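Tutorial, part two.
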Amino acid sequence: MTSALEGLRVVELGDFISAAYCTKLLADLGADVVKIEPPEGDSTRSHGPFHGDIPDRDASGLYIYLNTNKRGIGLDMRKADGRDIFDRLLDRVDVLVENLGTEQLDTFGFDATALRERHPRLIVTSISVFGREGPHKHYRGHGLQASAGSSVAFRTGDPARSPLAKPLNEPEFLGGLHAAAATLVAVLAYEQSAEAQHIDISIQDILASVTSGPAIANALYGTRAAGTRNGHRVNAFFPWTVLPVADGYMEFITMQERHWRHFMEYLGNPDWANDERFKDIYSRVPHAAEIEAHLVSAVGDKTRAELWAVCREIGVSFQPVNRISDLADADQLRYRGYFQETVDGHGKRVVVPGAPYKLSASPWELRTPAPRQGEHTVEVLRETLGLSPLEVADLCRVGAIY
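Running the prediction step on this input gives:
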């Protein structure tokens, strides 16, 4: 066996990022993932980046990245024929990953409990903003609502302006990542107990536990003042900030007091650094704006590369804020072979992020590009459901399959 998850059969039913990223992580390790798209296609097809910034549903960078190593079929779940074929498909797979809205669940007439009653060996992984249980299970939401409901938004943005979410759909990616890990645990559990599980992933819960932590208590009970500084909430210690330098921005985060001492030594131990008000990472918090002004004055004329080289040498965890072009040309990522080539729906070359980890005996592998819409419909129906070519052609004719 050359792939870690070879033999694992997965169906993806949903839209946008969270379910697609979960199954991508499984597919890139060898799982056979069948992605179901409705007749109008997955909504990620309308999201860029695009070649030349020209929208093209067969050349969406987001769609291409999320769907490598998968097979794609078209299925109209709003029709009885589509739901029947879907049900038959589940008889032959190990895992269903879904991120449907509650309205869709009601329209399609199934939930995780009903599915597992009909398919007792099926592991069902559900991803939603508020979870499939609890008082908010019927609420609509995306990353913005998850950021607010988890208290992450308590520390970002200006209270006088609109709320801010975690950037670049990070909540959805985190939901997919945790769903993939939980799915693998459920697969291992099934091998030991023959009992299939329902995995209920709440993105709000993930943000609250992974990226928010003590801020929940601050938000609920007001144990720490929530004043703002330059449009950002004051953090628990300082420095914890991003400041301008000669060619961009640097992130200054002092996790340990020795980091601060080493950086002050690099600056020549200026008089202001010995101010009693700045004696530790907590006492500096009320004076953050004043310290930021000192830092910008001291290093604002230096480049990110200069400062990063110094910080690596003296063991300080400050780092540059990279642009996408910086990452694309990064020596470390090039040395690791991180970026990989694939093609879009027109066969044009596309560069995408590669493996987020390294495995020796069963390595990550980019085997096939993201499927064109409905590319594997006939193949999957014939192979998995045992339909004859005539039956498949008839289904396409009546429109149950796109």
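The longest strand covers residues 32-37. In part three we will examine how such features are distributed along the chain.
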